[in-house]
Write a structure and sequence with these properties.
Helix content is about 30%, strand content about 25%. The protein has about 950 residues and is an alpha/beta fold. Strands 11-10-9-16-15-14-13-12 form an eight-stranded parallel beta sheet. Strands 26, 28, 31, 33, 34, 36 and 38 form a seven-stranded mixed beta sheet that branches. α12 links the parallel β13 and β14. α2 packs parallel to α4, α6 packs parallel to α8 and α18 runs antiparallel to α19. The protein binds D-glucuronic acid.
Length: about 950
Amino acid sequence: MKQFLLLSLVLSSFIVQALPGDYLAQQPTKDDFALVGKSTQATIQLDDRDHKGLKRAVQSLQQDIQKVSGKSLSISPKTDAKQLLIIGSLGNSATLDQLIAAGKLDVSSIQGRWEAYLIQVIDQPMPGVDQALVIAGSDKRGAIFGVYDLAETIGVSPWNWWADVPVKKQPELYIKAGTRLTDAPKVKYRGIFLNDEHPALTNWTSEKFGGYNSQFYQHVFELLLRLKSNFLWPAMWNNAFADDDPQNAILADEMGIVMSNSHHEPMMRADKEWNRYGKGPWEYSSNRDNIYKFWQEGAKRHKDLESLFTLGMRGQEDEPMSEGENIGLLEQIVADQRQILTETFKDKPVTEVPQVWALYKEVQGFYERGMRVPDDVTLLWADDNYGNIRRLPTAEERGRAGGAGVYYHFDYVGSPRSYRWINTVPMAKIWEQMNLAWQFQADRIWIVNVGDLKPMEFPTDFFLRMAWNPAAFTADNLEQFAVSWAMQQFSEQYAATVAELIQGYTTHNGRRKPEAVEPHTYSILHYQEAERVSQELAALVKKSDQLYRQLPMEQRDAYIQLVSHPLKASQAVYELNRAVAMNKLHGEQGRVTTTYWAEQVRYWFKQDAELTALYHSLGNGRWNHMMSQPHIGFTYWRNPPANLMPVVSVAEPMPVADMGVAPEGSAFSWPISEYKGQPLALDTFYPHGQKQRAIEVFNKGSLPFEFSAKASTDWIQLSQTKGQIEVAQTIQVKIDWSKVKTGLNVGEVHVQGTGWGGAKIKVSALKPETEPTSGFVEADGYIALDAASATVQGNSKQSWWQLIPGHGRGVASMAAMTELDYQTKDIRKAPYLEYPLYFHSTGEFTLHSVIAPTLDLVPGRGLRFALALNNDVPQIIDSLADKSPAVWDNAVLDGVRVIKTTIKVNTPGEHKLRIYLVDPALVLQKLIIDTGGLKPSYLGPEQSQRIVKKLSKT
Ligand code: REL
């Protein structure tokens, strides 16, 4: 976190290329173009002939300029002003033609390209005009994107309407003289899928717009265009885009959005339309004629509207086709669908009608078993619904005319657990996966399931901007993007903190989605894990609240939506679960604090409801319903119908004093331990391990009592030896290592209070024979390493280990990357990560390699790495050796896969652990070597202590 902040501060004035350019003059000179000058203002010139969608965008720009500067620029087809903002698409603007003919404008950089635009300042463009700013698009959307580029540049965030981000007001707006920039997208279709939309989005749309009609969709389309995207799968749970409001499809086309339907809705017809109009069963083998006609109508309806036809067929409501529907039949279905398209599009060959085959869920299996579609159809590979791409094109597939795309998820309804409530996907995870898509040339379609859209502003923005130009995003500039993004939404001085907070809460949610966090997820017994996470979140919330108080009033609503709500709501769900776990433990131990934890559960449950209510009250209910997705009380994959307050126990304390004693790391406490025959002990102390361990002395009754604690030997140090207990107190136990002999030392702490005899807690301290000289030191029964602590050896242009900051459960991960299709031949020559270790013990130990839940997305390759101790022959590990559903379930819930292997340490002392690169896409997060004392926990222990060898002076 600290590293992140530092980097952010250093770069806070740096704008990532992916955000609009810096052609707005902050200190204008007389040569700059005055869009809005002191006493002048430009006229927007737009040809009457130009696209209606462009006109709409220009009108939005006009309003944006007004919001920013207070001045309303007029829009005119004429060129009779001194200062002109000339906007047009090539071939539809006489003014652009004139400038090109006069040699004033060179459009060769955009001509003939898909969605390209050029923004240029021209002096004396034509007689009578002093200066012009030209926005020329190679086509309709190119021009629209140019217009919205200018809107962003003058200070209007794409989230102005959708997240109440205020515009950055400036009375005068100048564009730098000499500005000339060209841009065009790298991924052809870039879009979102509105899905799983009930209750939140559906209730909101019906309250605000009366349903999923064109008044609603107009805002979705505009958002997409402002984010320079062009593609939509509409909401479909109980909706049919083109049928609910016939204007929907017409408006999409007019504004410039290419419509399609989700993977189980072929031929531009919604699933729900079949319920409304279909005759007979949705079974092609038995009801071909009716389904054929149904599809014919879809093709006809969308013939003149820009569309991407989904081919194939699945069962209704996202189910596989019924048994008996086989590859042969599916090939027939695609052939029939092509036939329909051929008949409908008489004016062009069917190969020029954009079509996609979504290889989602079971459909990928059809492909793997040999089913093929015509070459011009785009193959849409999907993730596993949890953000891990299942497959990317092979070299042969990359040669297909239709190319490939990727369908990704930020939201999902299904097993092992739905996640529909809040943003849970860290930016670095999206980058890591979509960068692979880009490397493997899956660049025709990038579509992401954004659920209700609203809580996914940041990842959606990131995904779509990355789709525009994936090459501009590298592991090294991701954090800069977050800062630049934050700068666009809020004042510059808050940007670094905003980026840090977003990174903070998404790292937390990436560790485990709130819906899947359970009371027992994070350990309340070991490594202070649950408490540590609690402190991390509390620190973020504190920072967030401080920032909130400093923020100008007008930025606060946006801040709640984009930063503080998701952070605090994630904290509430986490703390609720921690409190349930504490309530259970304290209940079992009979503590008076049981009731305190029950109240904590109620507090966080109420807090969650209040956070939702606050969100819904913003702007007089502007976002009412938007956070109404139930998210507490899951018992299986499906969400509960409403948030469910967990069952808690309440203690009725005895009217006397009664002592209990619990050592850290143990669910047992005194005196229960006596009856269970479980002697109490603290985990063994090591010189380089945990510094202190706690003994809790607690009350089970309502009257106070005196206690005393005595160590049996002078090397055991206690933070206190007596006191009065009303509720509970903690005695911290430390070791005075100067008084400890080499080998195992055993003593005890005797705690006396009420009750007979008192509690005796065994304390052991193990002083190894040798003093560690260098490396991460074995202590407490393990060595834990953060992947990013490696020394990287042997990186080459063909294959390399890449540090990805902000990735994974900690601060960074190490990813195996290679040139496309590169195969590691000689593992000994492959790049490797090296970790210096220091062992006190010898033997066969289990190494836990914690990796991202990436899949073997390159056919024929696994997801392998190799490991070796020192110069041993590297041992190849197939991280996907176990492909059972249960293993996958755990991996996606845990956000990591843990691969266990055995390593043999023959001698104590210094060793080197090496992790060799074998297959690309493997991402290493952490390594833990269990030397016999590793305790169960979710994240594993924090990194072990490292001794750095002092260089001897020469
Ligand atoms: O994430 C998906 O693509 C599917 O789950 C959806 O298409 C599907 O509509 C699901 O929400 C319906 O139950």
